[in-house]
Design brief:
Structural class: alpha/beta
Distance between the termini: 22 Å
CATH superfamily of the largest domain: 2,3-Dihydroxybiphenyl 1,2-Dioxygenase, domain 1
Helix content: 10-25%
Strand content: 25-35%
Order of helices and strands: EHEEEEHEEE
Length: 132
């Protein structure tokens, strides 16, 4: 099978690496990702042939915060196993006091045939978990 077009990796710079790793390691482990690489300034997590890298932003670049409504990345969307997994993770997000976006339209904020939960990581990057 060709890998042509398959996402190889995504690299995210974090203003507070420890806080981002705490958030992402929890969430990604729910989807089957495992710790892949680890060094002083970062960590990565891998699922099959795709990995996600988190790197501490250099101090000289901390003065320009990320905002998903500016040019650049808006959000990352991941497939869940099922609607039940979306519900389970939604409840865990609430227990962790992680803000659920579009709460008034949840779980159909993406439309009537799009069962998903939307939330933010510590950098306020929008994350979506969608049922197949």
């Amino acid at each position: 099978m060709s890998k042509k077009g398959v996402l190889h990796h995504v690299e995210i710079y974090a203003s507070d690496l420890e806080k981002s790793i705490e958030f992402w390691s929890w969430f990604l482990s729910k989807l089957g990702y495992e710790l892949y690489q680890e060094w002083n300034e970062g960590k990565s997590f891998k699922l099959n042939d795709t990995y996600i890298v988190f790197v501490q932003v250099e101090e000289k670049h901390l003065d320009t915060p990320y905002h998903r409504c500016k040019a650049g990345l808006n959000h990352l969307a991941f497939y869940a196993e099922s609607q039940e997994q979306v519900d389970k993770i939604t409840n865990q997000l609430r227990e962790k006091k992680i803000k659920i976006l579009y709460e008034n339209k949840h779980p159909y904020a993406g439309g009537k045939n799009h069962y998903a939960v939307y939330f933010e990581d510590p950098e306020r990057i929008k994350v979506e978990l969608v049922a197949p």
